[in-house]
Structures are given as structure tokens and as C-alpha cells.
Design brief:
alpha/beta, Aminopeptidase, 8-stranded mixed beta sheet, 22% strand, 573 residues, Glucose Oxidase, domain 1
């Protein structure tokens, strides 16, 4: 999580801190009191359970296995492996699946879907140009004609080519090699082939933007010197454009520059090529909600590698003002997509709902395996809930399944949060799976979010039933769920703790003694499939899910989500 996102969560969410040792919850700050002194202790089964539910756990696991036998191949290796936002095929499939569970549609106007409109920026096929030039040099991009002007189509001028590198001088002494000389400054140079660039707002062609001299990234920028200009910032020697943290580091530096009033920001680094190429691919397409587009976005954000940095330095070394022309060769396309919503109607408070949510799309291929595990666990858990309710009694309040079109920006979550706050079913808790169990079931479960004492008690009971300890973190683990907190709606994630959360952790005596299913009060059927342990990584687990045996971790996640939904749906607090 980037520093900026952490600051947002810490500043605006006002989460209260909980400390947990083993299975004992000790609040450091005051937890919000529950609205009702009565506590729901799970498992308290609904009244009049039919005889056929005496072996409920085995029956429900068999149902999940039958569902997974069909869905795992399609979602992990088949036609629905890459579920892009705007793609109708996964939406149709998932909607039919929810209907087959016997669920009721829960979207606006009684439908399955909640619409949201997005804007996608993608390559247009035209060459990109980011031209740094002298004021006397010709404009390096073709400006669009004024509105209403008719012009004859012709071939746009090609952006200026980058000058060839000057041959390096042979050092006189191998012990003290001199720095590579700067190339001869050219009146105009196109930086697009040497960097990665994007426009945070709508695509536009700009010419004659004033630029600054080079500043060090992280230094306080003099507003009088940079406001209204394109600023050049040199990244530190420890910056590596190939790391997973690089995009967040770039966002932090660019955010600071924007606060100084710049129109654009281009970073200079020493990457030899692979890191720049990775960022170029990442930035080639962007997605945003239609109403989130604002007019004061930066006109240019970019980063150039070692070769591009030398060209910028040589151009600015002349000492005269330099201008920047921009045409990234992109276009904006409108995309209509949907959230999917289904519910089990509560018997006493149908207007309140415990919501189980998960993104159905896979916006980031690097996180595709984890996204798929989350979706499989979420769907299977709700299939079990539907089966349970059909054989038993309806829960005290409604249970709602929300499959969102995330798009990597939390788009669907924000749309649902706004709708829920204004006119939808009132959420009493939004629940999501964060880190799926990637192998052997661990000794603890991590809960993150803003929860009160009653919810903490329910969590403790449900996790304890699994023979595991409870850890609670006050900072929400999934930033894409933050829109709910902006609307003061309760949200909570559950999942495997990361390695740093287990540093110094000592399992409770009950967990250490649970060496067998009988020790934790579970039967063999309740503990899930027995067999070969899965690997420790999400990708390894997904590859093995096609086999009928090694699904212990996935079944543990399904049980956890299902039991939390049942307990929270039955709680009268």
C-alpha cells in the first residue's frame, strides 16, 4: 500500500486500535459499544433444524465440491480465466449461477445488475510524442483544429527523431572512469521512445508547455519556480523501476509535485530499459469513473530511463528556456459494466443486510490468481448459505452477495457504497476475503476494519470454532473497500495473516493442542478433504485446484466466510 493510501486511511477513517494476544482480545482504545447487550454466541443454530441437517457440514462441503468441479476449470485455466471489465461473458455466467442457487435479485429496480459507467484511455494507433524543444524550433505535435473548423485530412508531421548517442570517450585511467558525456543538444528531441508517459485526466494534445530545470525528487519545490510548468525530477540512486513498489513511489513523488502547482511531472532515473517498458505497458491503458474526471488533473506524468535522462540534461544545459509538446496517441472510450447483486431475504429485518463482496474481474494480471481464489471461495460460501437456508429457516436479517466490477480502482465498490447510503438495503456489515489460504491452514485468522465489541465477539467465536486464533488490525487491508468507510458503512476483511503480522505471535494452548480434527471439535467431514498439502503460493494452489483432493485451504476459507455470514446475519446487536 502506498504512503498516500495509508495517509488517507489513517486520516479519514478514524479506525480504533485493537490488540490481540492469542485468542484473547484486549482493546487498547475504546471500541464502539454494541447497540444491544445481548450477544450472539456462534454456533447457535436456527430453531427447528430438520433431521437431514444433522450432517450439515458434510452435506455443504459436498455441495461446494460439486460446484468447484465445474467452476475451477473455467475460472483458472478456461475461457473465463481473464475476466476483463466490460466483458459480458463472465457476467452472464455468474448471473446464471446465482439464479441456479435459488437466490433473489437484489439490484436497483429488482434486477440482478447495478450499472456503472467508466472511461477507458487506450492507444489510438497514432505515434506518441513528448517533445522537448527550444522556442525557435517548430511545434513537435499536430494541434487539433478549433471547434467547427473544417480542414482537409493530411499526414501529420512525424515527431522529431532522438539524436544518436555520442560515442563515449575512452577514459585515460581505468581506475577513475569519467561520467559519460552528454549528447550534443538538439533544438528538438522526442522523449516518448525513452520513457513511459500518461495523462491522468482525459487525453489531450498540448504544445508550448513551459518547463523547469532539474530538481531532486523529495526536495521541497519552490512554488514560484515550478507552478504552471512541467517539472523535471531526478530520482535517487536507490530507485528501481522494476520493483513492485515503483508505481507507488512514483505516485508519491508526483503527488508532492502536484501540490506545488505544476502542470506536469517527468521523473529521471537510471533504468536501462526493462523497468520503463514495464511501466509503459502498465500505463498504456487506464480506467476511471465518468464522474471522477476533473479538470485540474496533471497534463503529463512520465518517467524516462538512463538514455532519456541524458537527452533531457543535454537539452536543459543550454541555459535557454525549453518547451514541451505532448501527444500520447491515446483516445478515451466509454465502457458500460455492472455489479451483480443477489440476496437471501431476512425473516425479521429484510431491509438490513450482511454483505459478502468480491470483485468478479481480474484487472491486474499479477494478482489474477489471488482474485480467482477470492471469487471461488465467495461463490461457494454463498452457495452453501443458499442451501442451508432452503433446508432450515431464513436468517434474522438479509444476506447479500455483491460481485463488483473493480477495474483496479474500486469502481464497483464506490458505486454500491453510494447507492447503499442513499437508497439501497442498509448494510450492517460488509465482509470480504483478503488473503486466501494458500496452503496449509495456519494457526490464526486476521480480521481488519472498523468493528465494535459485538462484532469482535462474533468473529472470535467463529474463528475459534475453526480451532484458530483471532488477530485484529485497525487498518483496512483492502483499500478498494474504503468507499464504504467514506459513507460510514461498517466493513471488515478476513484472511490469512501476512508474515509480518505473525512475528512474535504465539498460538494459544487450544490451537497448539489441536493436532487432530477431534481435538478442535471437528469431524473428518467438517475439516475438509484430506490428502496432499498444497503449496505455499496462490499460483501453486490454483494450479492444483483442478485435482479433486488438495483443497483444504479453499474449504477453510469457504467455511469461514459462510459461518461469519450466518453469525452476523443472526446477531441482534
Amino acid at each position: 500500500m502506498s504512503t498516500g493510501r495509508r495517509r488517507f486511511l489513517e486520516r479519514s477513517l478514524g479506525l480504533l486500535t485493537l490488540g490481540v494476544g492469542g485468542c484473547k482480545i484486549e482493546p487498547i482504545g475504546e471500541l464502539p459499544p454494541s447497540r444491544d447487550a445481548e450477544r450472539f454466541e456462534f454456533p447457535k443454530l436456527p430453531p427447528r433444524i430438520p433431521e437431514q441437517l444433522e450432517d450439515a457440514e458434510a452435506t455443504l462441503q459436498q455441495l461446494a465440491d460439486e460446484l468447484l468441479a465445474v467452476e475451477v476449470p473455467r475460472l483458472t485455466t478456461g475461457d473465463l480465466r481473464e475476466r476483463q471489465i466490460g466483458d459480458e461473458a463472465p457476467l452472464q455466467h455468474l448471473q446464471q449461477l446465482l439464479a441456479s442457487f435459488g437466490l433473489q435479485p437484489a439490484g436497483p429496480r429488482g434486477g440482478w445488475r447495478q450499472a456503472l459507467e467508466l472511461r477507458s484511455t487506450e492507444p489510438s494507433g497514432d505515434p506518441a510524442a513528448v517533445v522537448l524543444r527550444s522556442p525557435a524550433a517548430p511545434v513537435g505535435v499536430r494541434l487539433p483544429p478549433p471547434p467547427g473548423t473544417q480542414v482537409e485530412p493530411d499526414t501529420p508531421p512525424a515527431p522529431p527523431e532522438s539524436p544518436p548517442d555520442a560515442p563515449p570517450e575512452t577514459p585515460e585511467s581505468p581506475d577513475s572512469p569519467p561520467e559519460a558525456p552528454l549528447p550534443s543538444p538538439e533544438p528538438s528531441v522526442n522523449l516518448a521512445p525513452h520513457g513511459a508517459f500518461r495523462q491522468p485526466g482525459s487525453p489531450s494534445v498540448r504544445a508550448g508547455l513551459l518547463s523547469t530545470t532539474i530538481f531532486a525528487a523529495g526536495d521541497k519545490l519552490p512554488r514560484e519556480s515550478v507552478a504552471g510548468r512541467v517539472v523535471w525530477l531526478r530520482m535517487g540512486k536507490d530507485f528501481d523501476a522494476q520493483t513492485a513498489e515503483a508505481p507507488d513511489q512514483i505516485d508519491d513523488v508526483v503527488g508532492s509535485a502536484r501540490d506545488a502547482g505544476v502542470l506536469g511531472c517527468v521523473l529521471l532515473c537510471e533504468d536501462s530499459g526493462p523497468g520503463i517498458e514495464r511501466l509503459r505497458e502498465r500505463w498504456s491503458r487506464s480506467l476511471r469513473r465518468a464522474e471522477d474526471i476533473v479538470g485540474d488533473e496533471l497534463l503529463l506524468v512520465g518517467i524516462v530511463g538512463a538514455e532519456g535522462s541524458r537527452l533531457v540534461e543535454a537539452s536543459l544545459a543550454v541555459g535557454e528556456p525549453r518547451l514541451v509538446d505532448v501527444d500520447l496517441g491515446t483516445r478515451e472510450v466509454a465502457i458500460a459494466t455492472y455489479n451483480l447483486m443477489a440476496r437471501i431475504v431476512g425473516r425479521e429485518r429484510p431491509g438490513e443486510a450482511v454483505i459478502l463482496t468480491c470483485a468478479w474481474d481480474t484487472p491486474d494480471l499479477l494478482q489474477q490468481e489471488r482474485d480467482t481464489l477470492r471469487l471461488l471461495a465467495t461463490i461457494a460460501a454463498f452457495a452453501q448459505l443458499a442451501s442451508w437456508v432452503q433446508r432450515s429457516t431464513r436468517p434474522y436479517r438479509s444476506l447479500l452477495l455483491l460481485l463488483t466490477a473493480d477495474g483496479g480502482i474500486g469502481a464497483g465498490q464506490l458505486e454500491h457504497a453510494r447507492w447503499s447510503a442513499e437508497e439501497g438495503v442498509r448494510p450492517t456489515m460488509i465482509l470480504a476475503l483478503d488473503r486466501p489460504t494458500g496452503g496449509e491452514i495456519g494457526p490464526a485468522v486476521l480480521v481488519s476494519g472498523h468493528i465494535d465489541e459485538a462484532t469482535a465477539a462474533v468473529d472470535k467465536a467463529v474463528v475459534g470454532r475453526e480451532g484458530r486464533d483471532l488477530l485484529i488490525a485497525d487498518q483496512l487491508a483492502m483499500p478498494e473497500l474504503a468507499p464504504y468507510l467514506r459513507h460510514q458503512l461498517p466493513v471488515m476483511t478476513v484472511g490469512e495473516p501476512p508474515a509480518d503480522a505473525l512475528e512474535g505471535f504465539v498460538p494459544s494452548e487450544r490451537v497448539r493442542g489441536a493436532e487432530s480434527p477431534e481435538a478442535s471439535g471437528e469431524t473428518g467431514d467438517e475439516m475438509g478433504d484430506e490428502g496432499t498439502e498444497t503449496g505455499g503460493e496462490d499460483e501453486g494452489l490454483v494450479q492444483e485446484l483442478d485435482a479433486p483432493g488438495p483443497r483444504e485451504g479453499l474449504h477453510a476459507d469457504i467455511r469461514l466466510l459462510r459461518n461469519l455470514m450466518l453469525a452476523l446475519g443472526a446477531s441482534r446487536a
